Amino acid sequence: MSDEPPSTLNNMRTQMQRAQEYAQVTENVFTRLKHPERTLEVSLPVLRDDGTEDIFKGYRCQFSGARGPYKGGVRFHPSVSQDEVIALAGLMSSKTALVRLPYGGAKGGVVCNPKELSRDEIKRMTRRYMEGIRRMVGPKMDIPAPDMNTGPREMAWMMDTYSVYEGHTIPEVVTGKPIELGGTPGRIEATGRGVANITEQILNYYSRSPEDSTIAIQGFGNVGSWAGRLLAERGANVVATSDVTGGIYNPKGIDTHEVGELIESGGQIGDYDGDIERISNDELLRLDVDVLIPAAVSHVITADVAEDVRADIIVEAANGPTTPEADDVLAERDIPTVPDILANAGGVIVSYLEWVQNTQEYSWTLEEVNADLERRMTEAFEEMMDAYAEYETPDLRTAAYTLALDRQATAHEQRGLFP
Ligand SMILES: NC(=O)C1=CN([C@@H]2O[C@H](COP(=O)(O)OP(=O)(O)OC[C@H]3O[C@@H](n4cnc5c(N)ncnc54)[C@H](OP(=O)(O)O)[C@@H]3O)[C@@H](O)[C@H]2O)C=CC1
Ligand SMILES: O=C(O)CCC(=O)C(=O)O
């Protein structure tokens, strides 16, 4: 079996389409919900350290604002495209609806390879990007946040650029900032913490526990590394992980804290010299483990890969890692897949908590933030499982999208956006 050429946008629309009949959303409403409201493309002239100038292409898509201000991360990656940014903005709209945040959905990105840019070049590019999109964003309008290859450093530069134009400091225009600039404790590890919460809940649902489980994680960046460390703290045995240079495997377990420190100090998985066997990313996806956690790029689990998956459960930490064709195979093979719009929602939940703290000019403790995150993830998981049982959807993704579509359609109707 082979898939269509990968289009994150087609995949996202197919996923929505599959939920339409359960959500009982009319054709007119559905047509509106699957199209973005607007997408901006910007050209970013960036001075290189050698005195030459390069033009980078950036995007910001605001997919849906019916449920509140647009919200979503910004990624710096060579694979960024308009199609991908629109799809990821659509995913954000469903994600915020599913976990009941008062937001719509957006996403941004710049086509670049940050590994080939110096810190100063990344800084100039980030500031140019915020200049390019600043008429579109704002603390009550659209609030960017981190995604692949962006973090507190880039958010600080974006916040500063926006504030310079406005004439005063506006922390709440972005989330995921450094703590000193109004960031919240807990945002860095929030997405991974949410993944750990959901992994534990789905294991419990099947009468299993982290202590009895082996885990393979594709990608050991922000999300993968924190998911790995926090799952290890919950007793799980993380046996494999990877980055773009390939993977490492030890059936007895790998030291997630040691590998995390290596990555945070600028190293790569390829540099790790612990007691491990080297494997490819493809082999990692096919390992015989209890839980497989894709935490890197989109559409890595194709129908072909799905045929070979030996994990009992998949938890999607990445956005869009599984194609619709692969979903069919996994459903047929009875391998439950917790969808991205729930599994990785911890990041946007804590972004929301950061934004709330900024707008109230009041800060919370790490314990308060983590407790709120765990509560929201747990409630959303339970709602998804209830919908799965009630609607008898073919898989968990369709149950999650059914709830998300219902809530978005209700917001459109209550606002009178449809005649
Ligand atoms: N950051 C957040 O808060 C959120 C992120 N997500 C999603 O989680 C995923 C990871 O994001 P994040 O952790 O922030 O990103 P990072 O850039 O911090 O990490 C990405 C990881 O994936 C690896 N990777 C990149 N390309 C490949 C590839 N082709 N094959 C295998 N591994 C690869 C990277 O390796 P290398 O470093 O070698 O390039 C790195 O280990 C994305 O899908 C993102 O959209 C979802 C919700 C929130
Ligand atoms: O923290 C946020 O606002 C958004 C994070 C994000 O981009 C995502 O959940 O995919």
Structure report:
46% of the residues lie in helices and 17% in strands. The protein has 419 residues and is of the alpha/beta class. Among the domains are: 35-173, Leucine Dehydrogenase, chain A, domain 1 (Rossmann fold); 190-343, NAD(P)-binding Rossmann-like Domain (Rossmann fold), CATH 3.40.50.720. Helix 3 (82-98) links the parallel strand 3 and strand 4 (105-111). Helix 1 (8-23) packs parallel to helix 3 and helix 13 crosses helix 14 (366-391). The longest helix is centred in the last third of the chain and has 26 residues, at 366-391. It is globular and about 55 Å long. The model has no long low-confidence stretch (mean pLDDT 96). The site of 2-oxoglutaric acid has 14 residues, from strand 3, helix 3 and helix 13.
Q: Which structural class is indicated by helix and strand composition?
A: alpha/beta
Query: How does CATH name the architecture of the domain at 190-343?
Result: 3-Layer(aba) Sandwich
- For the secondary structure, the number of strands is 12
- Counting DSSP H or I runs of 4 or more residues, the number of helices is 15
Q: What's the alpha carbon Rg, rounded to whole Å?
A: 20 Å
The coarse silhouette is globular
**CATH homologous superfamily assignment of the domain at 190-343:** NAD(P)-binding Rossmann-like Domain
The amount of beta strand, in percent, is: 15-25%
Largest sheet: 7 strands, mixed
Report how far apart the termini are: 43 Å
Which regions contain 5 or more consecutive residues with pLDDT less than 50? none
